[in-house]
Design a protein that fits this description.
ATP binding; alpha/beta; about 250 residues; about 30% helix; ABC_transporter-like_ATP-bd; ABC_carbohydrate_import_ATPase; globular; four-stranded antiparallel beta sheet; Rossmann fold; ATP-binding; 12 strands; nucleotide-binding; about 30% strand
Amino acid sequence: MALLELKNVSKHFGAIHALNDVSLSLEPGRIVGLMGDNGAGKSTLVKIVAGNFRPTHGTMQMEGQDLSMHRPIEARRHGIEIVHQDLALCDNLSAAANVFLGREIRKGIGPFKILDYAAMYRRAGQIFAELRSETRPRDLVRQMSGGQRQAVAIARTRIADAKVVLMDEPTAAISVRQVAEVLNLMRRLRDRGIAIVFISHRMPDVFSIADRVVILRRGRKVADKDVAASSPEEVTGLITGAIEYA
């Protein structure tokens, strides 16, 4: 059964139809590559799933139950997390402080509670070990590589016990070595049964890790197929319009 399912979802901004009748299903432990040119509707679709936008038409279901969200915090309560392209990290804080930002562990009695740094360092270290990342809990984010920063952002989703993770261009603007590190982090999440939407313009990355590829063009879904049944040439044709549907 699908973990998250969108049925005929549309989003209109006045006369602008950003999305038209898009259906999408996400399954546990599977990675869906979401591709399309700028303005194809990828960001709008992701913002609907993340609770930023409500669809104009269509329905969403989570584990077979109807899903209606008004704010991102409601999506998080349902186990939907997003790793933004800019990562939204605080450079002056440690890795552990960023992982627990807004979800800090506290100790004490009644209203007299203080931050439990030892517990946060310990738990963050356990998560980095699970992800097989070299990131250390006490390291400052401003001193980290692009791959280590991604590890911190991904570790946040583990704290939240995410079921669905939306990853917005996680391999953009980082080195080849760091790309490999980030793809491995995504594999660790997939192996734990998490459904991942991987938004990317990088064809080699999508074909190396995704199970399925979904392509949007001008707000419509023009392909949804197994990566093994497609090719970079076909995907390029679908994105540009040289191929209408697949």
